[in-house]
Amino acid sequence: xxxxxxxxxxxxxxxxxxxxxxxxxxxxxxxxxxxxxxxxxxxxxxxxxxxxxxxxxxxxxxxxxxxxxxxxxxxxxxxxxxxxxxxxxxxxxxxxxxxxxxxxxxxxxxxxxxxxxxxxxxxxxxxxxxxxxxxxxxxxxxxxxxxxxxxxxxxxxxxxxxxxxxxxxxxxxxxxxxxxxxxxxxxxxxxxxxxxxxxxxxxxxxxxxxxxxxxxxxx
Amino acid sequence: xxxxxxxxxxxxxxxxxxxxxxxxxxxxxxxxxxxxxxxxxxxxxxxxxxxxxxxxxxxxxxxxxxxxxxxxxxxxxxxxxxxxxxxxxxxxxxxxxxxxxxxxxxxxxxxxxxxxxxxxxxxxxxxxxxxxxxxxxxxxxxxxxxxxxxxxxxxxxxxxxxxxxxxxxxxxxxxxxxxxxxxxxxxxxxxxxxxxxxxxxxxxxxxxxxxxxxxxxxxxxxxxxxxxxxxxxxxxxxxxxxxxxxxxxxxxxxxxxxxxxxxxxxxxxxxxxxxxxxxxxx
Lengths: 219, 282
Prior knowledge:
The complex is a heterodimer of chains A (219) and B (282).
Chain A: H1 5-38, H2 41-72, H3 76-109, H4 121-141, H5 144-174, H6 179-211, E1 214-216
Chain B: H1 3-14, E1 20-22, E2 35-46, E3 49-60, E4 64-68, H2 75-81, E5 92-100, E6 103-104, H3 111-117, E7 118-121, H4 132-142, H5 148-161, H6 165-168, H7 181-193, E8 199-203, H8 211-224, E9 229-233, H9 237-243, E10 246-251, E11 254-260, H10 261-266, H11 271-277
Parallel strand pairs in B: 4-9, 4-10, 7-8, 8-9
Antiparallel strand pairs in B: 2-3, 2-5, 5-6, 10-11
Helix pairs in contact in B: 4-5, 4-7, 5-7, 7-8
Domain ABC transporter (chain B): 37-277
GO molecular function (chain B): ATP binding; ATP hydrolysis activity; phosphate transmembrane transporter activity
InterPro entries (chain B): AAA+_ATPase (IPR003593), ABC_transporter-like_ATP-bd (IPR003439), ABC_transporter-like_CS (IPR017871), P-loop_NTPase (IPR027417), PstB-like (IPR005670)
């Protein structure tokens, strides 16, 4: 007989829910960016509406985790999994909020001559989504090498962030008539950089779960 | 902006990302305390059957050391070797050394003196069928203390030390067996304290108690460690985690792992320890 089979199953269920939440956030980011590219307000509104599902899932995960702590009194790795779930769900929720912010910027830009090609925002978004996939996989499979890869990718996002900032501000000085759109793109630049930060925190939580030690991947 | 300020802010903004391992609080070294009990390569046989295999432990002064492990792993047997309670069982053979305050327990024949120094509290309260007062005064009287005032003082101090004084001070002359289980267990602790021991051994002292009495006894143990060295056998792992400084994990008569309690319950080094504390076997 496997001892604590129920508890094992509950831990698996928690991880499954985190994965579900992660996938919803990836979806939200992709959609928000498509909306930004195609200047499609309909899609942007959809991202904002669907964020409620992610918020609800976070609440559900948190209640589940707290209940498991009270009922099962986990220690050692088990405890780190439950605490990790609490932190990671919080991070994923924040990432989804940035997708909402990008959608709001899309609405503010409205119909205009898109200046997105000036920037590296799409690359930043692609790398961020890759990071999020890796960090979730690293958590689910308890693979620390993947967690480290996430932190390396963050450096790339940071680099693009700096370059995009320079490109947009330079363009702004020459084309003040585009201020509205350029300011929104500067915001989006910031949002994606923050997304990458939150993903790196997820990787840190995963590293803590695996090794039982704190790591600071973005000092 | 001056160049220096520019450079500093540049380096803050641009600083290359590094992986930094943050020192976790768990790793902060505690002040080293003197060793009270040193056990070296202890083997114990019940007749042909070996119950302990090469146990070596250093139990430090004024700390709580918890012994955990599944039933039959030898933790109670080990506990009883510390004040030679196993001498009472036929066919027990012991090899190896147990030093308490650098004195070899098995080379000194004064068992009475040893058990005065190393007191014990058992699983079930085992008070004598006499008054609360007489229970606590029993040991000191056997040692020849007759002075009433002195006895009164010992009884009061011991009952206070066991956090039971306020509950029994008005009924010292009534039978100890009329108390609740939790109260009786604390009177047992008072009876052990009355002998002014250095070390107190506890063999599952709360396993027969209700949750509230258990918490009271745990609180008491935590407060007692400023004066005594305590070794406790417990099946309640949360209890070991709450009250002990060091934890030894026993399995099949061997010590698998002995370390700071924080480490045992957060990042044990042996997989078997991890499996046991997380409830995967046992």
